[in-house]
Amino acid sequence: MEKEKIDKKDHILDVAERVFSDFGFDGASTRMISGEAGVNMAMLNYYFGSKEGLFLAIFERKISSFQTLLQNIGNDDSMTSWDKLAKCIDKYVDRIIVNNCFQKLINREITMNKRGDLTDKITEMLMVNVIEIRKILDEGIKNGSFFKDIDIQLVIASIFGTKNYIINTPHLSSLILGHDIRDEKFMEEQLKPRIKTYMKRLLKAYLMTDNDNTK
Amino acid sequence: MEKEKIDKKDHILDVAERVFSDFGFDGASTRMISGEAGVNMAMLNYYFGSKEGLFLAIFERKISSFQTLLQNIGNDDSMTSWDKLAKCIDKYVDRIIVNNCFQKLINREITMNKRGDLTDKITEMLMVNVIEIRKILDEGIKNGSFFKDIDIQLVIASIFGTKNYIINTPHLSSLILGHDIRDEKFMEEQLKPRIKTYMKRLLKAYLMTDNDNTK
DNA sequence: TTTTATCAATCAATCGTTTGATTAGTTTTG
DNA sequence: CAAAACTAATCAAACGATTGATTGATAAAA
Fold it and tell me: For residue B27, which nucleotide's C1' is closest to its Cα?
């Protein structure tokens, strides 16, 4: 059955995604993955050709859904620049934190630019969101919503960097926050809204608040 | 010769640090490291006991210099809370960006879920700086320098997260910034002061600037 | 002589991958 | 319809290669 086959492939990809994100590409063995997925080892090669093929398949599966994450928010003319940015942050936090271990995968892969073509693909994929936010910031400066002398590029680094820091270093951020951030209930009910509130206030203070001593 | 032995060990550690940071712990083989270091493979086990011992030795070597990085800034009673925080940022940016590949090592290792003892050691090491900043923020709230309702823990995430984002994802941040951030001259003369200025203004706006619409 | 450092050769273990056999499901054929 | 032929999925076993580690010999130093 074609349907069952896709389900099984999808199940293998789910498991592989988690195992790769926990152990890294080289640290995760094909025996480990097939064992946890409950399938014969040979199935990995049967379906995906090779270990690297399996790894790449994980990315292929997600790329399309990622591209549309923040897109087209900037084109809504009924919103102020600030509202657009705030909406971006809400959407981004909502979406990205559930894809927790895929984010770790992306991050590890993009820091280690072995497999250059994949790095390029990931970069391209992440840049879609970057460009969307940059567009909003640019526009906000032009229409006077935001200060003229803000550092757009570093603001972007702060937005994505803050999120990355929290979810990519769970050991550390759990210690800092005093809670295990892998506790889904805590993450969903407390941390997510808290991050949204914080990020918006942080950015608003930097971008919009009158500040007589800007130096 | 004790001196030569230390030099050779240090040279091996230098090479291993770079190779590990490029390929990860599992991706880097002992033959790779010994080959690039120009020493016999058995020397790694002779000096460091095992591959993991070598890996740990890389961290041991850096820990002491890390621990004193931000420490004792908070104890200087002649500075305001804000000046302390600003000094922390300056020192941190100055110091951390040169240790580029060691930072990548730390980041990759702390992202992994398994390999518990090392993760704990790294976490402990990074927490020293976290605690120092937290102390300054706590104090600043108490003495009225900073707003009472700031989110200390997420501020910390922004400080370290922004930095990590820039230097750990060079492909992406180079694209965002429009310069190759691995260009040392650009990094030293332009990006470093720019990051310092930006971080200070961002934090000041959030922590101290009067803001009538804090929600 | 005793200790330390270095080396090529080798170890068992594990790696990703392949194989050939077997099963189950579908299509074709008589 | 039923037997045969074909296809896809699954498996245990084994493959050669590479891994981290160890050995015993040799050289250098103390």
Answer: D19
CA distances, B71 to each of A168, B17, B103, B135, B161 (Å): 25, 25, 19, 11, 20
| A to B CB pairs, distance under 8 Å | 171
pLDDT below 70 — which residues of chain B?
1-6, 64-71, 74, 98-99, 115-116, 210-215
Within 8 A of B205 by CB-CB distance, chain A residues are 205-206, 209, 211
Cα–chain center distance at A43: 29
Q: For residue range A91-109, list pLDDT tens digits in order.
A: 889 887 777 788 889 888 8
Domain A2-58 - what CATH class? Answer: mainly alpha
Chain B within 8 Å of A193 (Cβ-Cβ)? no
- Residue B50 contacts strand D, CB under 7 A: yes
Q: The domain A68-207 is classified under which CATH number: 1.10.3680, 3.20.20, 3.40.50, 1.10.357?
A: 1.10.357
B40 CB below 7 A from strand D atoms: no
Cβ within 8 Å of residue A23, ≥6 positions away: A32, B26, B112, B113, B114
Fold of B2-60: Arc Repressor Mutant, subunit A (1.10.10)
pLDDT, tens digit, 9 for 90 and up, residues A99-149: 778 888 988 888 887 777 788 888 888 898 899 999 999 999 999 999 999
Q: How many of the other CB atoms lie within 10 Å of CB of B116?
A: 10
- Per CB-CB distance under 8 Å, the chain B contacts of A197 are 151
Q: List the structure tokens of A82.
A: 């600030």
CA–CA gap between residue B49 and residue B176 (Å, rounded):
43
A150: left (phi over 0), alpha (psi -120 to 50) or beta: beta
CA–CA distances in Å: residue B135 to residues A33, A35, B6, B74: 43, 46, 37, 7
Helical H runs in A28-80? 30-37, 41-48, 51-67
Structural domain boundaries in chain A: 2-58, 68-207
- Tell me how far apart the alpha carbons of residues A6 and A57 are, in angstroms, rounded to a whole number: 13
Burial state string for B74-99 with b = 16 or more CB within 10 A and e = fewer than 16: beeeeeebbebbbbbbbebbeebbeb
Smallest Cβ distance to A161: which of B111, B164, B214?
B164
B173 CA to chain A: closest CA distance, Å? 8
Contact between the CB of B187 and strand D at under 7 Å: no
